[in-house]
Design brief:
The complex is a heterodimer of chains A (458) and B (119). Chain A is of the alpha+beta class. Chain A folds into 2 domains: 124-218, PmbA/TldD superfamily (PmbA/TldD fold, 2-Layer Sandwich), CATH 3.30.2290; 223-458, no CATH class. Chain A contains 9 helices and 22 strands. Chain A has a 6-stranded antiparallel sheet. In chain A, strands 11-10-9-14-21-20 form a 6-stranded mixed sheet. In chain A, strands 8-15-16-18-22 form a 5-stranded mixed barrel. The radius of gyration of chain A is 23 Å and the shape is globular. In chain B, 10% of the residues lie in helices and 53% in strands. Chain B has helices at 13-18, 69-74; strands at 22-26, 29-34, 40-45, 48-52, 55-59, 64-68, 76-92, 97-110. In chain B, the strands form 3 sheets. A 3-stranded antiparallel sheet of chain B has the order 1-4-5. A 3-stranded antiparallel sheet of chain B has the order 2-3-6. A two-stranded antiparallel sheet of chain B has the order 7-8. Chain B is globular. Chain B is mainly beta and 119 residues long. Chain B has 2 helices and 8 strands; from the N terminus they run αββββββαββ. The chains are: A alpha+beta (458), B mainly beta (119). The A-B interface holds A 40, 42, 44, 153, 155, 181, 189, 228-230, 374-380, 385-389, 391, 408, 410, 412-413, 434-435, 452-458 and B 30-37, 39-42, 44, 62, 66-68, 71, 93-96, 113-114, 116, 118-119.
Chain lengths: 458, 119
C-alpha cells in the first residue's frame, strides 16, 4: 500500500479530496473529507508566576461516510493516506452494524459562503513572547486591586480548516482566538474570576480580566454564611453563560432525540420570559465560535434559538433534519465527547437589555449576586432539574445595593423556571468562554426571580 | 486520585440494612457536585429504595443528600465487606484531559442524615 504524508497548504488542499476519492471507492454515497490544522499556545500561571508554557500543533483529518440510511464519522490524528485507508476500512463494518434510520444526504453544493469579518487576526498566530507579557499584565492588574495570589491560563489559537464533499462543497477558512481565564485570591475564602476572549488582539483585554478578578477577590473578603430559600438573583455573565450553554445543547436535535433536552416537545412554546432572546449567531462578525460553514459544508446561519421567550429553532444537521422532515440549520459539528458529527450551536448571543448591573441590583431589592460557578449537573435532563455551585465572589443584595460577601450556597432549580423567571437583562455585554463555558457566549448580567438556593444540612 | 476507595468492613449488605427501621438506600446517583474546597457536596439518588424494618420496599424518587464532607464521613457507622467498581474518566485541565479512574468501593451506612430536596 502506498502512503503519502503531507503538510501545510497541500495538506489542507489535497487531503480532503483524497478522503472523498477513497470514500467513494469504498462505496459510500455521501462523503465529507475535512482537515483542521490548529496551532495552540498556552501559558499557565499560578501563585503569580508562569508555571507552564506549551505549544500544540494539532492536525485532524475528518472522514464522514454516508450510505443513505446509515452514516459514520471519524476524526484522526494521522494525516497519511494509509491512515485514512485504514480508518475507512474500520468504519465500513461499524457502519453496517448500525441500525438503519431515515434516509438522509449531506447538503448539495457548491455554496457561496458569507464573508464573516473579524474571525481572523494575522497578529494572533505570531504571538510568542507577547503572551507572557499579557499574563504579566493580567497578574499585575489583579495584584494592584488587592489580590494576593493569581492563577490561570492564557491561550492563543490559530485554526485553518478545509472541507471537500462528494456533493460539490469546496470550503476553507482561517480563524484565530485568544482567551484568558484567571482566578485571584485575597484570602483562602475570598476569590474572584476574570475572563477575556476575542478573535483579535484589539478586543483582547487580559489586564481588564486581571482587574476584574482582583477586584472581586478583594470585595469577597470575610464572607458570611448564606441562607437557603427562594432568592432574587443577579447572575453575572460567567455563571449565566454556563447555564445558557445547557439551553443551547437542549436546543439541539441530537439532545432532543437522545432524551437529553428540557426543550423536547416544546418547539413554538413559551419556555422563557419576554426578556430571553438567545441567538446562535454563527455569522457574527468577530464572534468566537462563528464560522462560515458547518462540518457538512452547509452555510452557517443566524438562528434564533429562543425569541422573546419562545423556543423557535431546533439546531439541525442533515441527518436530524431528514428524520424530522425539516431543513438543516447549518449546525453540523464534530462533537468529540461522543465522536460524531451532530448539530450543536457554537456562537451564542443573548439580547441585551437597557439596564445597568446596578439597576438590576435595585430591581432585585433583596437577593444574591452570583458571579461564577462550576459543576452544573442535571438531576433530570428532560425536566431541566439541576444544581450548580457558585464559586468565587458571591454577595448579598440588600435594599437594592450590593451587600456583603457570602459563601456556602448552591443554586438548585429548574432551567425552564430560570428562563421563565428572568425579569431583566443588562446592557453592556462581553464574551465568555472558559472551562465551564464551552460554547462562546456574549451576554451581560441577568436578574432572575425566586431562584432556588440550598445549602448543606450539616 | 485514580484509585481511591474506602476500606471494606465486615458486614454483608443485608446486615448493613438489617437493623434500619426507616431509611433510604441510594444505589446510584445522577446529579452531583462539590465545591472547590471539597467541603459542600450533593448527590441526588437515581436508583433509590425505601428501607423499612430492614427490607428494601418501594422506590424513592430523587432523594437529595446535601451535606458537608465532615458530616458525611462522621456519620458513617458501618461499611460492607462487598465491593463494586466501575471504570470511569475524570476530567482534568486546562486544556481538557480525561484521566482514567477506577471508582467504587463498599456500601456505606450513614446514621441520622437528613435527606431533602428543593429550596
Amino acid at each position: 500500500m502506498q502512503t503519502t504524508v503531507q503538510s501545510g497548504e497541500s495538506l489542507l488542499r489535497d487531503l480532503p479530496r483524497q478522503i472523498v476519492q477513497r470514500g467513494a471507492k469504498a462505496g459510500a454515497g455521501d462523503i465529507v473529507g475535512g482537515v483542521e490544522v490548529e496551532k495552540r499556545r498556552m501559558v499557565r500561571f499560578s501563585n503569580n508566576v508562569v508555571t507552564v508554557v506549551q505549544t500544540w500543533d494539532i492536525t485532524s483529518p475528518i472522514i464522514y461516510l454516508g450510505f443513505g440510511t446509515r452514516s459514520i464519522a471519524s476524526r484522526l490524528s494521522d494525516t497519511s493516506t494509509a491512515a485514512v485507508d485504514e480508518s475507512i476500512q474500520q468504519m465500513l463494518p461499524a457502519v453496517n452494524a448500525l441500525p438503519e434510520t431515515v434516509e438522509s444526504h449531506i447538503p448539495r453544493g457548491p455554496f457561496q459562503y458569507k464573508n464573516v469579518p473579524g474571525l481572523f487576526d494575522s497578529k494572533v498566530p505570531r504571538l510568542e513572547a507577547e503572551l507572557m507579557d499579557m499574563v504579566e499584565s493580567a497578574i499585575n492588574a489583579s495584584l494592584a486591586e488587592g489580590a494576593k495570589r493569581v492563577s490561570g491560563v492564557l491561550t492563543s489559537y490559530h485554526t485553518r480548516k478545509s472541507l471537500y464533499t462528494s456533493t460539490g462543497v469546496d470550503a476553507s477558512t482561517e480563524l484565530t482566538m485568544v482567551e484568558v481565564s484567571l482566578r485571584s485570591f485575597a484570602e483562602d475564602d475570598a476569590s474572584g474570576q476574570g475572563v477575556s476572549v476575542s478573535t483579535s488582539l484589539k478586543d483582547f483585554d487580559p489586564e481588564g480580566a486581571g482587574r476584574e478578578s482582583g477586584s472581586f477577590a478583594k470585595q469577597s473578603l470575610h464572607p458570611g454564611q448564606g441562607h437557603e430559600g427562594k432568592h432574587n438573583v443577579v447572575f453575572g455573565p460567567s455563571i449565566f453563560a454556563n447555564l445558557l450553554n445547557t439551553v443551547a445543547f437542549s436546543a439541539s436535535a441530537y439532545a432532543i432525540d437522545a432524551g437529553y433536552s428540557f426543550f423536547a416537545d416544546k418547539l413554538g412554546q413559551k419556555v422563557g420570559s419576554e426578556q430571553v432572546t438567545l441567538v446562535d449567531d454563527r455569522l457574527r462578525p468577530a464572534g468566537p465560535g462563528a464560522i462560515p460553514f458547518d462540518d457538512e459544508g452547509h452555510p452557517s446561519q443566524t438562528n434564533n434559538l429562543v425569541a422573546k421567550g419562545t423556543f423557535e429553532t431546533v439546531s439541525h444537521d442533515s441527518r436530524t433534519a431528514a428524520k424530522l422532515k425539516t431543513r438543516s440549520t447549518g449546525n453540523a459539528t464534530w462533537f468529540s465527547d461522543i465522536g460524531q458529527i451532530v448539530p450543536i450551536p457554537t456562537c451564542l448571543v443573548l439580547d441585551e437589555g437597557d439596564r445597568s448591573r446596578e439597576d438590576l441590583f435595585e430591581e432585585a431589592g433583596d437577593g444574591l449576586y452570583i458571579t461564577n460557578n462550576w459543576y452544573t449537573r442535571f438531576q433530570n435532563y428532560r425536566t431541566g432539574d439541576f444544581s450548580t455551585i457558585p464559586r468565587d465572589a458571591m454577595f448579598l443584595i440588600r435594599n437594592g445595593k450590593l451587600g456583603p460577601p457570602v459563601k456556602g450556597l448552591r443554586v438548585s432549580d429548574n432551567m425552564i423556571h430560570i428562563l421563565q423567571s428572568t425579569r431583566a437583562v443588562s446592557r453592556g455585554r462581553k464574551w465568555m468562554r472558559w472551562w465551564e463555558v464551552d460554547i462562546p457566549t456574549y451576554l451581560g448580567h441577568v436578574l432572575v426571580d425566586r431562584v432556588g438556593i440550598t445549602r448543606s444540612t450539616g | 486520585m485514580a484509585n481511591t476507595y474506602m476500606k471494606p468492613g465486615d458486614q454483608t449488605f443485608d446486615e448493613l440494612i438489617g437493623d434500619i427501621r426507616h431509611g433510604v438506600y441510594l444505589k446510584t446517583f445522577m446529579e452531583w457536585n462539590i465545591d472547590d474546597k471539597r467541603f459542600n457536596e450533593r448527590y441526588v439518588g437515581h436508583e433509590a429504595y425505601l428501607i423499612e424494618n430492614g427490607e428494601l420496599t418501594s422506590y424513592v424518587r430523587n432523594p437529595v443528600l446535601e451535606l458537608t464532607t465532615p458530616k458525611l464521613y462522621s456519620s458513617v457507622d458501618a461499611v460492607s465487606k462487598e465491593m463494586e467498581f466501575d471504570a470511569g474518566t475524570c476530567g482534568k485541565g486546562d486544556p481538557m484531559q480525561g484521566a482514567p479512574v477506577y471508582e467504587g468501593g463498599p456500601s456505606v451506612r450513614l446514621r441520622n442524615i437528613r435527606l431533602g430536596g428543593g429550596a
